[in-house]
Amino acid sequence: MQAVEAVELGDDSRWFVVYTKPRSEALAYEHLQRQGFMAYLPRIRQPQHVRGAWRKVISPLFPRYLFVRLRPGVQDISPLRSTRGVTTLVRFGDRLAMMPPGMVEALRACEDPKEGMHMAERALFTTGEPVRIMRGAFAGLEGVFHAASGEERVVILLRILGRDASPVTLPMSHVEPVAMVEPVLQRTVPRQRV
Questions:
Q1: Whole-number percent of the chain with pLDDT over 90
Q2: Alpha-carbon distance 183 to 156, whole Å?
Q3: Is the pTM for the entire model greater than 0.70?
Q4: Which one of 45, 77, 89, 109 is at 20 to 30 Å from 131 when CA atoms are compared?
Q5: CA 74 remoteness from chain centre
Q6: Last residue within a domain, chosen from 119, 136, 155
Q7: How confident is the model at residue 147 (pLDDT cuts 50, 70, 90)?
Q8: Are 185 and 132 in the same domain?
Q9: Average pLDDT score over residue span 75-83
Q10: Of 68, 95, 119, at which residue does a domain stop?
Q11: What domain range includes position 173?
């Protein structure tokens, strides 16, 4: 992705970056639209673990940011500061941050035409990924994701009773990915006295 560049306030109509209050992107977008500003809030639909179940959730592609098309010098930008949900326009010193030409159009081109938003391309789990069972008879056990079994179930390979790779089918809401954080191993070498 290209870097955001700064622009002088006298340039022609361009897309600028708006910084919003926490979880207020949709509110800021709605109020900017009501005030006659052309705004763009890129959103993404992706799986998320909510209240013990995996659901497809719509959230901002860039949390706390959205874009507004302005003509500084021609269009009064002072109402932006008091718009509900908006914290400020992003600036670099005394210059407003603006998107490179064509970047917002490229973001829009990547959206699913039916949904009007970006879709998460990654599957919830990938084959061979370590997972932990959070609920049910196997709660606390770790296994390896093998395959999806319909929309709401998964097949996990578990080591049960000394047998390798026993397939177990579980509801998807009972399984979470294991964080792949490995501790840093430090080799201690005893110091030799001279």
A1: 30
A2: 25
A3: no
A4: 45
A5: 35
A6: 119
A7: confident
A8: yes
A9: 89
A10: 119
A11: 123-194
